[in-house]
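Technical note accompanying the year-one report. For the benefit of new consortium partners, we illustrate the data format agreed upon in the data management plan: each record pairs a sequence with a structure-token string. No post-processing was applied to the example shown here.
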Amino acid sequence: MAGRGHAEKAQSLGLEVVGFGDQLEEAAERARTEFGGRYATTDTGRIMRDDSIDVVLIATHHDAHHPLAIAAAEAGKHILLEKPMCLTYAQAVEVAEAVEKAGVKCVINCKFRIAPAVRKVRQLLPRPRVSHGQLAMRESENIGNPWVWRADDGGGLLISTTVHTIDLLGYLMDSAADRVYAEGRVFGDNKGTEGYPDALVGTILWKNGGLSTVISTDQGMNPFVSKWFLEIWDGERSAVLSADMNRADFSGCDVDHVDARELPQETQDNAAMMVNLIEAIRTDGDTLCDARDGVQAVAICNALDAAARTGTPQTVQ
């Protein structure tokens, strides 16, 4: 699904789609048939060796992010990498080092950073003190994705999906994380044998002194605030992000609310990480969620998982 969405976006931006790679030949060929392109292949090396390709979009299962991103960087390709950047902190660091050594642009698709409502919150509350973020979804949303719960593939709900929330908290708190604590439980009977919690409640202490709480669960969705929800306070002002981060409501600010769905269509269309990556390539600027940002999100997720398993606070790497 993510790969299909990226192909659609590339087409809408007028980018030439050259090739599709997949472990399943028929899946790669279906994508080429739908979106065009010169070829479909099961050999990702063919894509990396193709000098006509400038940008590689990586939207695979999470375990493949690490080798494919390193191969792309070493081949001199700019990279749009789906979240999570990698499954482990060590893997994420290796990808970041490969990107930096190659001098290519990389954006992690932590898409909420570029949402207009989120950007307004960051502008109006630049020095927040306390925040809360959550992912609350239904169990049924992952029934068709059992791989999410496998250690060597998906890595569990926290790093597979809630990483969006973790990254957004770091972006809005504008700080690296210091230490975390969490409690987690496995309530469902279809979550594999790895012990990844389907309900986790955690705290994050940021190095700038800020404090966040986080909830990660697939035990039900709150229809009033949506699957994704975040609150933030700075001592005088506050903001609430809801409607899948499309809407921000403010207290103590000159602005009452911002709703991306009320903005011009062009503004909505440009709120995409692929647009940000292309702009960074053209201007030699920075991406909105670069490789080091991706490393931090993975490090926090790993630390929260370790805290939930051990019952002890964890220092974030």
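Partners are asked to follow this layout when depositing records. The first helix runs from residue 2 to 12.
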